[in-house]
Amino acid sequence: MLIYVVQPGDTAVSIAENSGIPLEQLIYDNELRTPSALAVGQALLITGAGEAPSPLRLQASGYAYPFTQEELLGDAFPVLEEVLSFSNGFSPGGWLYPFDDSRLRALAVLSGLAVTLVLTPMTEGGTFDSGLVHTALSDLAVQERLTEQLVQKTESLGYAGIHVDWEFIEAADRDRYTAFIGRLRDALHPLGRSVSAALVPKTSDSQAGRLYEGMDYAGLGDAADTVILMTYEWGYTYGPPMAVAPLNQVRRVAEYAVSRIPREKIVLGMPNYAYDWVLPYERGATKATTIGNIDAVQIAAANQVQILYSQQAQTPWFRYSRSGITHEVWFEDVRSIKAKLLLASELGLLGVSYWNLLRSFRPNWVLLAQLLSP
Fold first, then answer.
1. Which of 167, 213, 282, 328 is an active site residue?
2. pTM of full prediction above 0.90
3. Is the peptide bond before 87 cis (omega within 30 degrees of 0)?
4. What H or E segment, with its residue span, contains residue 344?
5. Does the active-site annotation cover 167?
């Protein structure tokens, strides 16, 4: 396996010939939608070339919506062990809303994957309401009602466990949240099911901010069977242009996590999306467009601009102009993904989990298959 960076004058044909692999394989593995149009600086995965990599001892999972296209699931499922079904919301009284993921569960079972139900503070209308978190954590009866329903649903539909993805937990609710995770774990363990929790990307116990203060890494590490670090969204929709998951920042979070939580419980979050910003950036006015990683490469190729690579962030990016307006794009490729996989392996983490499977990214799955193969 090799990662080749496209040089001026390269074509898919010349790269395939020089690498000694079939052109069709190069096109398929790298999801080259228009093989005649490559971008200088584009990273291509060359499978079957070079030395076989030493396998990484990592598990892989991914979040999926019930409506995720079957073709996209087909690319990802062969290298995953678990799919997290996103997501079941609840009412202020603690009643679960109807959530039909039967199609997703059936496809996962056919592929031999475990399915975990994701619990979020989602309203009946499908929007997130962080106020629901405080409501639930302030009322033990609501928590007990939620727990009872989750146990019943897990047992009746065959979920492997429950994943709790609650954010913006108030500082006053910090210990209540940890206790809720522990009680949910105690209720599910007799059934042989597990509980995991999503953790916002903290770097210290005393980190200030509404997003961070209510989340106790050490406590949640004790209460949950596993945790998923949400190591993405440094670059985000309303923020300035930058990498979504810069490796230097991801490392800071992961190193803090292993100082508070047993490393064999920790899963590193992986982004499967990109952002396209309009320049100049103006706080409060500029809004980035979410795109796929494959889409980003196609934009660079179509506009004949070079893809650059930040050594600090270990992330590709580029700028292009359309209709006189300059854009800046940060995305993931096989180089940036490999760097994160190697970090997870270096720190001895349990595995990685992708947010999410809604966009195509076949080179990632091919890379994962190569690096996790025994």
1. 167
2. yes
3. yes
4. helix 334-346
5. yes
